[in-house]
Amino acid sequence: MSTPPISDEREHEPFLHQALEQTTFCEPVPTAFCVGCVLVARLPDSNPIVLSKGFSRELPGNTHAEANALAKVQSLSSLQLQSLVSPWPWEAAPVVEDLLPHVDVYTTLEPCSVRTSGLPACADALIHARVRRCIIGVREPDDFVKCEGARKLKDAGIEVVWYGGLEQECLDAARRGHHV
After folding, report:
1. pLDDT tens sequence across 96-109
2. Given 13, 27, 66, 97, which residue is catalytic?
3. Chain segment 34-49, per-residue pLDDT in tens
4. Beta-ladder partners of 159
């Protein structure tokens, strides 16, 4: 398989560093990765807006970083959304479904395409949310499953950006607590 194109856009680096910081909150376990995620809205005529952050096992139920960040943003009220995104760019009352197609997902590890626990895959959740783009720190290694999250996202029309420069940091964070 050929190596995907790497992004050298420095606009992504601060948000990937925030995602890496989220990995430090993960409880390391030998059977799962420590992953961090940041959801950033990019609206016309606006600076990027951090909507939510998440990390692996943050919420109950063996949860993953991307699913946690999505759950947190989807739980925001209209008032909370309006305080984050001001002025609100649409005439209708603030709803997260209007915002998600403008969201970039920054994740330290490729979103999962299959869960050994039987829970929904993060790639599927991002597709269902209709996010705009996914910026990934490093490809998921085949330690547990063969991941095809990036391919699933691309096939669904979501832009995938492989960020170059933090691969080792992202991989080291993911494997924290593992004996490799």
Report:
1. 999 999 999 999 99
2. 66
3. 999 999 999 988 889 9
4. 133
| pLDDT tens digits for range 107-148 | 999 998 876 666 789 999 999 999 999 999 998 876 666 778
Q: How far is CA 115 from the centre of its chain?
A: 16
Could you read off the pLDDT of 64-73 as tens digits, one per residue?
A: 999 999 999 9
The residue behind tokens 């996202």 is 153
Which letter does DSSP use for residue 118 in this model?
S
Please give the order of strands across the beta sheet that includes 103-107. Answer: 6-7, 159-163, 133-136, 103-107, 36-41, 49-55
Rounded distance, CA 10 to CA 7, Å? 8
In this structure, the strands spanning 133-136 and 103-107 are: parallel
Model pLDDT, residue 143? 60
66 labelled catalytic? yes
Q: What are phi and psi of 66, to 5 degrees?
A: -65, -45
- Cα–Cα distance list, 9 to 83, 109, 134, 171 (Å): 29, 18, 13, 20
pLDDT at position 144 is: 62
Round to whole Å and give the CA distance between 162 and 137. Answer: 6
The dihedral through the CA atoms of 122, 125, 129, 130 has a sign that is positive
